[in-house]
Amino acid sequence: MVYDAIVVGAGLAGLVATAEMADAGKKVLLLDQEPEASLGGQAWWSFGGLFLVNSPEQRRLGIKDSKELAWQDWIGSAGFDRDDEDYWGKQWAKAYVEFASGEKREWLRSLGVRFFPVVGWAERGGYLAEGHGNSVPRFHIVWGTGPGLVRPFEYKVRAAIEKGLVDYRPRHRVDELLTVGGSVVGVRGSMLEPSKAERGEKSSRVEIGNFEFHSEATLVSSGGIGANFDLIRDHWPSRLGAPPKHMISGVPEHVDGRMLAITERAGGLIVNRDRMWHYTEGLKNWNPVWANHAIRIIPGPSSLWFDAKGRRFPAPNFPGFDTLGTLEAIQRTGYDYSWFILTQKIIEKEFALSGSEQNLDITNKSIRQVLSRILPGPPPAVQAFMDQGEDFVIAHQLQDLVAGMNKLTGDHLLHFEEIERQIIARDREMENKFTKDLQITALRGARKYVGDKLIRVAAPHRFLDAKNGPLIAVRLNILTRKTLGGLQTNLSGQVLNSAGSPVKGLYAAGEVSGFGGGGVHGYRSLEGTFLGGCLFTGRVAGRAIVNDRR
């Protein structure tokens, strides 16, 4: 069969690009090393958060957003400071903010995607107006979470398979991009034995044959390095301190980054290798699917955050404000874990867990189950971690809580008197409506947003008042997730070489391209921009290949 294009990687970016090309009548070969059960890649596991600007959902909640404000926030967060490496990333950023404030929502709605009515406020920043963070809530949760976002593109690809336009071959691992005279002309690789591994589970790497396919266009959409701890440590930036000795993985084991090196050998340029996005609020999954399976807490702003020695982190290292800033603060302590201390009232309202499987009410589109969140008690997924997860300590007395925390780690670094002093000092600040404690100022400010007041931020209260208990401590681990650098691409998704020229026949989309240009986020993300980056780059690259093949 003669193919108009080959797509390497059947995650969200690969599905979007394949669907775009098939809609234009092009014949596409879609290859992936994993079994068919993993179609959709990491996106399927996601909470389904998308960055939108000036949306109807925002306006209904009284949020005044604009393209100009979003660009101000993006630039303040990205911190672009590398002329060559950041050039195309910045161009993609401009295009993406335009997309997010323009046709993105209506394009998705035309495919059947709908959104949860309450817009979340992720990465709140805590600096000045031109610093890092979202000035307003922009985190739009897909109704159906990650699976709900993957589904319309999967349907499109499966319909194209039925029409003979798409040849989907799972268990086909690409080992080499074929080149002739500097142009990429196809792929060569290994067929892996059939596997019954379920989605996210480790699959066999036993080879049962070889393959070679040719095309004038090859698109790499193979993801990042999130499960490859060796590569993460190799590229760990010194600005974030020493790389963690202990990490847990927010992505399945097949997210190994191997196609980056393969594409580099074919002439593609990798930039911003030291930019990455890892979370600080990781829990060890009590019911793991993959090795070192981690779940991230998406916290509200009220929990007190302490380092491993029991010292409260200073402003603005509050829950949900600055992911990488807090990661740096944690790594500077010499330990790779930290603690939340909170109350029962806080966990009932402020703890959300990231992931489609941790939010089955929204994933299953059950309004009845969503409404049950207003009932007393934590959400079922959170309660399961409290009951069975190894990172939780629960006690009615602070002294017992601290003893349990020391027992959990075995490090015995915490002193009851020091933690008690800090919590009492914080509780004293609750006597007045004004305070010098910026975390209290922030949570009171958050409750002026109706979305936070209704479902996200607990009413301010004293931690040591027994009526708000019991007290809860949560050990937080470093959770690996996203690669912010990658293959440098122009605004058509063409991979560039070291001279800045396109490698003929080679394209990239999604995380492998740093979500656009080799680093659309710069140093920091505003959240909701990873899935969106896969959608946007997959769409752009797919359409560019169609135009180039006319």
TrEMBL record:
Keywords carried by this UniProt record: Flavoprotein, Oxidoreductase
One Pfam family recorded for the sequence: FAD_binding_2
MF GO annotations: steroid dehydrogenase activity, acting on the CH-CH group of donors
Domain of life according to the entry: Bacteria
FAD-dependent oxidoreductase 2 FAD-binding domain mapped to chain residues: 4-531
InterPro entries in UniProt: FAD-dep_OxRdtase_2_FAD-bd (IPR003953), FAD/NAD-bd_sf (IPR036188), KsdD_DH (IPR014614), Succ_DH/fumarate_Rdtase_cat_sf (IPR027477)
Protein name: FAD-binding dehydrogenase
Record organism: Paenibacillus azoreducens
